[in-house]
């Protein structure tokens, strides 16, 4: 956060409390940092599963000695397993593009039946409106989407989308979405070089965090979320 002081002191110069306290200002409109990392055994206390379709609730699983939150669909078509972030045990959006939110997550894509076309996407995760229908195009969103064996960076402004093919997805990867004042940057594993930068069709509505997986053609789909962290940097 921004701090303004009455006096500016050179290195090793003596300062006095009165010089600091008289004009000590926390400028909350400039920057707010708030981290949320709440994936654990009591998942239902902080995440909602109300958008599931014919799928059991996501749960805490040990896989090869590692703990994940597992989202698993039945072996049907268009069954959905999903979690969306709650606020104080209630379904709610938790951020806005003006907050300049950053979502960093680690996701294992275990079983995905690839199907052609965006309408058949089988994995989506990132920033979306809390009550928007899952696997629907042209929503307010900044997400990663998986289909046809590839992962795509997607932004939507409620009327249209911009989508970038980021290449074949890995079984396990770290993903970051940075919503900036005039762009959205997407990162996969390499957190220095963005795999996609979008300046069109940017979201402009309240958002929450969702992780979702959908079955296609009578084949189950599974994703496992290892960790998720949200940082919000509100700036003028």
Reconstruct the topology from this structure.
Elements: E1 2-4, H1 17-21, E2 25-27, E3 47-48, E4 59-63, E5 66-72, E6 80-87, E7 90-91, E8 101-111, E9 123-128, E10 140-147, E11 150-157, E12 161-168, E13 172-179, E14 184-188, E15 196-198, E16 208-214, E17 222-232
Antiparallel strand pairs: 1-2, 3-6, 4-5, 5-17, 6-7, 6-16, 8-13, 8-17, 9-10, 9-16, 10-11, 11-12, 13-14, 14-15
How would you briefly describe this protein structure?
With 236 residues, the chain is mainly beta. Helix content is 2%, strand content 44%. The protein starts with a strand and ends with a strand.
What would you note in describing this structure?
This protein is mainly β and about 240 residues long. The chain has two domains: about 1-30, no CATH class; about 30-230, Jelly Rolls (Sandwich), CATH 2.60.120. About 0% of the residues lie in helices and about 45% in strands. The chain is built from one helix and 17 strands. The strands form three sheets. Strands 3, 6, 7, 9, 10, 11, 12 and 16 form an eight-stranded antiparallel β-sheet that branches. It has a seven-stranded antiparallel β-sheet with strand order 4-5-17-8-13-14-15, with no helix packed on it. A two-stranded antiparallel sheet has the order 1-2. It starts with a strand and ends with a strand. The model is unreliable at about 20-30 (pLDDT under 50).
């Amino acid at each position: 956060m921004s701090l303004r002081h009455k006096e500016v002191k050179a290195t090793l110069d003596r300062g006095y409390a009165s010089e600091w306290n008289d004009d000590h200002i926390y400028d909350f409109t400039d920057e707010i940092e708030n981290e949320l990392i709440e994936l654990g055994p009591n998942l239902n206390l902080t995440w909602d599963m109300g958008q599931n379709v014919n799928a059991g609730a996501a749960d805490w699983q040990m896989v090869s000695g590692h703990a994940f939150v597992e989202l698993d669909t039945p072996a049907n078509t268009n069954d959905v397993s999903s979690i969306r972030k709650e606020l104080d045990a209630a379904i709610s959006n938790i951020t806005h593009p003006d907050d300049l939110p950053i979502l960093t997550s680690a996701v294992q894509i275990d079983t995905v039946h690839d199907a052609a076309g965006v309408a058949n996407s089988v994995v989506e995760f990132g920033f979306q409106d809390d009550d928007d229908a899952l696997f629907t195009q042209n929503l307010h969103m900044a997400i990663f989407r998986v289909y046809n064996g590839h992962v795509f960076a997607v932004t939507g402004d409620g009327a249209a989308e911009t989508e970038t093919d980021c290449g074949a997805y890995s079984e396990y990867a770290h993903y970051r979405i940075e919503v900036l004042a005039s762009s959205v940057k997407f990162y996969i594993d390499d957190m220095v070089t963005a795999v996609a930068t979008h300046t069109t069709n940017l979201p402009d509505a309240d958002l929450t965090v969702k992780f979702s997986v959908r079955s296609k053609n009578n084949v189950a789909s599974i994703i496992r979320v290892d960790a998720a962290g949200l940082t919000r940097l509100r700036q003028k």
